[in-house]
Amino acid sequence: MDGVHVHRPGRPRHLRSDGSPRRGVRYLGKLNGLGALLREHSGAVEADFLRFYGIDLLDLWRGRLSLRRVSHLAAHLPRESATYKALGGEHAKWTTEAVLLADLFHAWTGTPHPSLPKDTSSADRARDVTARLKAQRARLERNKQ
User: In this structure, are residues 48 and 76 in contact, taking their beta carbons and an 8 Å threshold?
Assistant: First the structure.
């Protein structure tokens, strides 16, 4: 029954019936996720909006741009954007064309391209998330004092 996810009004979809998060689900919510993106990478988002859409991000604070529109535009930025690179780590440094060329190299030689970034294991990602959470907890404790 755990494979079937029936949405019940009043309970977020990313939580089980006992209130614990579903396995493999990372959910911040649209507004919280957008707020975190703008807080941590506002320069990259602003540059990308000007480059790709011709939109000044300051229009959000001027009342000419809605949060909904910013959210949708940010979610659909191309792989070559500064925001994508800021969020994606090593894989984001590769353009779509470079990834396709590396795939061709792999198809012709039978070995992965030597410069292709290695996927990090889930244990590495878990250690990274744990370290970031501990740092955030320490910052919050310092701010309480």
Answer: no
CB-based contact 47:84 (threshold 8 Å): no
From residue 114, alpha-carbon distances to 22, 75, 99, 103 in Å are: 37, 30, 12, 11
CA distance linking residue 46 with residue 96, whole number of Å: 22
> pTM of the full predicted structure?
0.52
CA–CA separation, 101 and 86 (whole Å): 23
The answer to whether the beta carbons of residues 13 and 4 sit under 8 Å apart is: no
First CA to last CA across the chain, in angstroms? 46
pLDDT in tens, 42-96: 999 999 999 999 999 999 989 999 999 998 899 888 878 888 888 876 666 777 7
Q: Where are the domains of the chain?
A: 1-90, 94-145
